[in-house]
Specification:
Helices cover about 85% and strands about 0% of the residues. By secondary structure, it is mainly alpha-helical. It comes from Inconstantimicrobium porci.
Length: about 210
Amino acid sequence: MMNMYFKNKFRNIRMNNVFLIITIAFFLTGIILGVNSVAYTKGNTSDLNSYFKELFTFISSRDISYKEVLLSSILSNLTIFMIIFILGNWALGSPFVFLIMLFKGYMMGYTFTVFIQMFNVKGLCVSLVGIVPQNLIYLPCFIMLATIASSYSYDKLKNKFQKINKTEFINEYVNASLSIAVPIVVAIIFETFLLPNILKMVILKLNI
C-alpha cells in the first residue's frame, strides 16, 4: 500500500513537470508571436505613437486614482485567475488554459516591443518600470496556476470513469489555488499603491 502511494505521488510529480513545460512553452510562444506581430503594425505606428503620448501626458498630469487602478488590476488579474481555476475543474479545460497563457505571453511581448520601437531607450525604461516589476510576481503565479489547473483537468478526464475520492481531489485543487492567490493579491497591492507613483516619476523624468 505504501509503495503504491509513493508510486502515485511520483507519477503526479512527473505529470506536473510535463504540464509545466507545456505551459511555459505556450507562454514563450505567445511572447514570440507578440514581438513578431509588431512588424505588421508599422503602418499604424504614428497612430500608436500619438495614443501612447496622450496616455503618458494623461498619467503625468493627473492625480492618481488608486480606486480606479485597484479595480482595473482586480478585474484583469483575478478574472484570469478565476477563468483558469474554473477551467481546471473541467475535464476538457487543459487546452483552453494553455491558450490563455499563449494570449498572456502575446500581450506582454507585443506591449514591450511597441514601447521599445516607438520610444527607444525611453520606451525600454518605461517597459522595465511599468511591466516588469509586478509581473515578477504575477507570471510565476499564473504559470504555477495554469500548470496545476491543466494537470487537474487532465486528471479529471482520466479519472472520469474511475472511483476516486472527489472531496479530497477538489480540496487539494482548491488549497493549491488559494496558496497561489495570496502572492497575486500582494502584487495587486503593489501595482495599485506603489507602481503608479514610480511610473509617473519615470515619465516625468524622461519627458516622454
